């Protein structure tokens, strides 16, 4: 009999201890914060992490951090609540918090008031604990809250409710749950306490006969505690399994936050938050918002007010960011949609350092002053102060082994502004405005850019007003014309010399026109010579004879036999001169790469002295001895890639380059980086490891890129009779009124085209 009894007692003892998950900081309310004090409980380490003045600036004295150890190992803390600075504290060195706990060995619930005194930057603590019942059964939910004055603490379970005078350390009211909850079988899951009233969210019977549970929000008058007024938060379409409601289940968790006379309640299971209004003796549902993010596995487990009109919601989305598995979404209560959060935390300006290894958030809280604290599932703590207009809070990197990480106030970065006090990031400057990021004071509004739209480049998130003429695109590519239908030199001469055109310029340079003009003059001289012969004047005859001698000497037709041939020779000389001029000018229009001026000697100004032929050739086909040297030079040419990041805040120390190999493998590449602050331009140059490769340029930081100018350059070389010219090509990439995307892929393809051209014969 003795052996059997001992065996049963041992089993009972182990079962009772198994009900307590010491490492789970999600269950219950393991953290509490106000503007003066932060407390989180770690059952695994039997310790309270206490931060006094967590948001006080360094210049004002900074924060004080200390650990308050449990004074017993037989303790499981369900929830904590801070009262803050004690009312009798004369120099802000006396702080108070309360917690609800259980003795694990006997399952006895109790409440404790902890006084923390600061002496010489160290903390002394005193516990004052009171048992609430004889125990014997485990409390699944044991909630604690402190009124806004920090005078009274209120505890809620499914079996009893109490009111504790913090300074007298006495229980003023202690009543059974049946006298408080109007719904039978009510299980409290979350609470928030104002000055004279509180709201408890939980599950109670919607139908006492069928015992169907529903989520309820209960208004409690703190002066009497009894007879709470409960309101249904949602319309249930499925039967709620009692075991999920009575015992802890993360999916069925609720959260509550009060702001003035309004309440927000998060219903995790339905991805919903509900807004209630205090009517004096009850609460009324005013709005219900249900959001279902496709990739989010959790929405609304924790909610809070960021200010009078902004609601913060915890979202678990493991693949959304590289900084954390959770995010806090901030919504304007009047505009709650999937695509309309005001901002999220963390974000590209408010990142989490690698020390945290992408944490998941267990709980967060926002104080009445707008400051935020976050407790991660690994019990790390984030302290994020609210910042004024023109500033934002950013991660403060540390190499110390700590579990509390502080964000610090910094000016808005270049290309952004902030016109109101908030926890959020700075907004990007609209197109046509800028912020250089070098000003000493916070920027509440971006500076207008130049109104000269033809040369001004001032896109989204601009730092400076860029003059586009300073970053022109250019190319060495030559548009080779098609070979004309006439390729024989004699045919070209005949076509361009023996034609008349109505175009005035063509008439002026037409050889046939001037030949006709000279021929006309010659005919006039011939007629004049005939007229002199019949006139009979001796002096004129003598002059006529002398002219005939001159014309005979110029006669190339009759070889000096006929003076009339001399006249015809003048016309021939004009025609030949024009032919010579055309031929010499035409010969000089080779090679085509050196031709930059129009053909002013011909009516067709695009006339080129080349005959083209092209075709695709397999690279495996052996090259001729004449062609092989140029191919060798091309294969040996080293390409240099220059990427100019225009209108950006990225600095050289935030840029790395790599060559991507198969799969996820890569090789780091060295680069030459320069930063021109006045032009907000960062230039990165690297040598391409080979002609066929994939190069990746990584920019790490919260900045944007207005445009990219990509340049490819290569040195020229000469080998025997082959000359490889210098390669120099630049292209400008931008999108109107937008910034360059986070991931931008730019393919660069050089086509080796075998283009043969030769001078016309």
Description:
With about 750 residues, the chain is α+β, with helices and mostly antiparallel strands. Among the domains are: about 150 residues, no CATH class; about 120 residues, no CATH class; about 130 residues. It has eight helices and 47 strands. Helix 5 runs antiparallel to helix 7 and helix 6 crosses helix 7. The longest helix is centred in the C-terminal third of the chain and has 25 residues. The radius of gyration is 45 Å and the shape is rod-shaped. The N and C termini lie far apart (about 125 Å).
Task: Compile the SSE list and pairings.
Elements: H1 2-18, E1 31-33, E2 37-42, E3 47-52, E4 64-69, E5 76-85, E6 94-103, E7 108-119, E8 122-131, E9 143-146, E10 152-156, E11 160-165, E12 170-176, E13 187-193, E14 197-207, E15 212-221, E16 229-232, H2 242-246, E17 254-259, E18 262-267, E19 272-278, E20 283-290, E21 298-305, E22 310-316, E23 326-332, E24 343-345, E25 361-366, E26 372-376, E27 381-384, E28 391-395, E29 404-411, E30 416-417, E31 427-428, E32 433-434, E33 447-448, E34 456-457, E35 466-467, H3 489-497, H4 504-508, H5 511-535, H6 538-553, H7 563-587, E36 611-614, H8 628-636, E37 639-648, E38 655-660, E39 666-669, E40 672-676, E41 681-687, E42 695-699, E43 705-714, E44 717-719, E45 722-724, E46 727-733, E47 755-758
Parallel strand pairs: 27-29
Antiparallel strand pairs: 1-2, 2-3, 3-4, 5-6, 6-7, 7-8, 9-10, 10-11, 11-12, 13-14, 14-15, 15-16, 17-18, 18-19, 19-20, 21-22, 22-23, 23-24, 25-26, 26-27, 28-29, 30-31, 32-33, 34-35, 36-47, 37-41, 37-43, 38-39, 38-42, 40-41, 43-46, 44-45
Helix pairs in contact: 5-7, 6-7
């Amino acid at each position: 009999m003795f052996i059997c009894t001992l065996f049963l007692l041992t089993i009972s003892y182990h079962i009772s201890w198994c009900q307590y998950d010491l490492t789970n900081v999600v269950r219950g309310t393991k953290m509490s914060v106000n503007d003066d004090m932060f407390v989180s409980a770690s059952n695994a380490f039997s310790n309270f992490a206490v931060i006094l003045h967590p948001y006080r600036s360094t210049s004002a004295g900074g924060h004080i951090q200390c650990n308050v150890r449990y004074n017993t190992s037989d303790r499981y803390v369900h929830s904590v609540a801070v009262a803050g600075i004690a009312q009798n504290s004369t120099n802000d060195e006396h702080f108070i918090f309360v917690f609800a706990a259980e003795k694990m060995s006997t399952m006895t619930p109790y409440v404790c008031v902890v006084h923390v005194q600061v002496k010489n930057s160290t903390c002394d603590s005193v516990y004052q604990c009171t048992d609430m019942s004889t125990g014997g059964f485990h409390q699944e939910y044991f909630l604690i809250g402190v009124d806004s004055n920090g005078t009274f603490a209120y505890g809620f379970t499914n079996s009893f409710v109490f009111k504790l005078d913090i300074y007298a350390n006495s229980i003023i009211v202690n009543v059974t749950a049946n006298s408080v909850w109007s719904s039978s079988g009510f299980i409290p899951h979350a609470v928030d306490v104002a000055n004279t009233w509180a709201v408890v969210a939980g599950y109670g019977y919607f139908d006492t006969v069928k015992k169907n549970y529903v989520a309820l929000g209960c208004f409690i008058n703190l002066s009497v505690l009894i007879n709470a007024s409960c309101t249904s938060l949602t319309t249930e379409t499925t039967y709620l399994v009692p075991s999920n409601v009575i015992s802890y289940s993360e999916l069925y968790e609720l959260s509550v936050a009060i702001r003035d006379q309004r309440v927000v309640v998060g219903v995790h299971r339905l991805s919903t938050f509900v807004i209630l209004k205090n009517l004096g003796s009850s609460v009324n549902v005013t709005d219900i918002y249900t959001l279902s993010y496709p990739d989010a596995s959790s929405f609304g487990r924790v909610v809070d007010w960021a200010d009078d009109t902004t609601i913060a919601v915890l979202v678990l989305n493991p693949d959304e960011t590289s900084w954390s598995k959770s995010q806090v979404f901030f919504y304007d209560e009047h505009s709650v949609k999937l695509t309309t959060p005001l901002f999220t935390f963390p974000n590209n300006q408010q990142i989490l350092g690698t020390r945290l290894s992408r944490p998941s958030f267990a709980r967060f809280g926002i104080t009445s002053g707008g400051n935020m604290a976050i407790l991660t599932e690994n019990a790390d703590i984030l302290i994020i102060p609210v910042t004024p207009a023109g500033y934002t809070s950013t991660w403060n990197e540390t190499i110390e082994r700590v579990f509390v990480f502080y964000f610090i106030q910094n000016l808005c970065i270049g290309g952004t502004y902030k016109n109101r006090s908030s926890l959020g990031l700075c907004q990007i400057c609209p197109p046509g405005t800028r912020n250089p990021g070098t000003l000493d004071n916070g920027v509440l509004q971006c500076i207008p850019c130049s109104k000269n739209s033809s040369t001004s480049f001032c896109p989204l998130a601009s730092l400076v007003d860029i003059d586009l003429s300073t970053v022109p695109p250019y190319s060495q590519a030559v548009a080779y014309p098609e070979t004309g239908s006439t390729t024989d030199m004699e045919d070209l001469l005949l076509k361009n010399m023996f034609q008349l055109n109505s175009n005035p310029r063509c008439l002026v340079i037409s050889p046939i026109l001037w030949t006709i003009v000279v021929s006309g003059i010659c005919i006039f001289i011939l007629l004049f010579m005939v007229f002199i012969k019949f006139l009979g004047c001796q002096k004129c005859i003598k002059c006529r004879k002398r002219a005939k001698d001159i014309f005979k000497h110029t006669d190339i037709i009759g070889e000096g036999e006929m003076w009339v041939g001399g006249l015809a020779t003048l016309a021939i000389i004009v025609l030949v001169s024009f032919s010579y001029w055309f031929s010499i000018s035409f010969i000089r229009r080779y090679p085509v790469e050196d031709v930059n001026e129009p053909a002013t000697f011909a009516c067709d100004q695009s006339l080129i002295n080349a005959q083209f032929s092209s075709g695709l050739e397999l690279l495996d086909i052996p090259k001729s001895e004449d062609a092989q040297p140029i191919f060798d030079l091309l294969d040996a040419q080293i390409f240099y890639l220059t990427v100019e990041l225009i209108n950006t805040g990225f600095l050289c120390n935030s840029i790395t380059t790599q060559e991507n190999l198969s799969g996820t493998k890569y090789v780091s590449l060295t680069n030459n980086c320069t930063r021109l602050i006045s032009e907000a331009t960062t230039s990165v140059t690297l040598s391409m490891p080979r002609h066929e490769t994939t190069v990746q340029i990584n920019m790490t930081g919260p900045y944007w890129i207005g445009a990219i100018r990509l340049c490819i350059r290569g040195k020229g070389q000469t080998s025997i009779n082959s000359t490889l010219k210098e390669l120099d090509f630049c292209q400008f990439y931008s999108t109107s009124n937008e910034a360059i995307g986070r991931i931008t892929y730019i393919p660069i393809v050089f086509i080796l085209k075998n283009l043969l051209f030769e001078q016309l014969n």
